[in-house]
Amino acid sequence: MVSLRLEDINWDRKTLCVLRPKTQSTILLPLLPAAAGGLASYIQNSRPSPNAYRQVFLRSVRPHRPFSGSSGIAHMLTKYGQKAGVTTGPLGSHVLRHSQATRQVELGTSLKLVGDILGHRYPESTSGYTRSAVRRLRDWALPLPHA
After folding, report:
1. How many structural domains compose the chain?
2. CA dihedral sign, ordered 47, 52, 55, 60
3. Which residues pair with 66 in a beta bridge?
4. Which of 1, 33, 84, 142 is the most exposed place for a label (fewest CB within 10 A)?
5. Pair (50, 103) in one structural domain
6. What average pLDDT is seen over the chain?
7. Residue 98, beta-bridge partner list
8. How far apart are CA 32 and CA 43, in angstroms?
9. Strand ranges (DSSP E) for 2-76?
10. Residues 64, 7 share a domain
11. pTM greater than 0.90 (yes/no)
12. Are residues 64 and 105 in the same domain?
């Protein structure tokens, strides 16, 4: 998402056109109301202005320029994670990706759809998220009655 450009947002159709960094292919994703509201608020109120850059997300410190990669995101996640008391270790964009995919599996989203969104070519690539979901679900399982 660090490379998301203003023209990649279609407000009328409520979609985002996202470039996948690994494959350089694009995917059209729905822009859900909560995300649209947050994105609009950021662009109107927090995005450094004026500037000549078309990327949506810019560094908040001078010089206000686009992020060069995911390391800036990792730095912010770690910083705000520490403030929130998160002690799981280093945080980065992959943690967000993994957490969201696991959550979608927990909610019953098909593995095919999760894999398509993540850009996986093979179903086996998505199976790791089911293992994480099963581990978490075990904590919520009711004990089996004894006969």
Report:
1. 2
2. negative
3. 58
4. 142
5. no
6. 84
7. none
8. 16
9. 9-10, 15-19, 26-30
10. yes
11. no
12. no
Domain with 109, as residue range(s), is 90-141
The first and second tokens of residue 38, run together, are 């947050």
Q: Looking at the structure, tell me whether residues 102 and 56 fall in a common domain.
A: no
> Is 30 domain-assigned?
yes
Report residue 65 as tokens.
């320029």
Give burial (CB, 10 Å; 0-12/13-18/19+) of 126.
Answer: buried
| 57 and 100 part of one domain | no
In 2-122, which residue ranges form alpha helices assigned H by DSSP? 33-41, 71-83, 93-106, 111-118
9-53 pLDDT, tens digit per residue, is 999 999 999 988 777 888 899 999 999 999 999 999 999 888 889
Out of 34, 69, 104, a domain closes at: 69
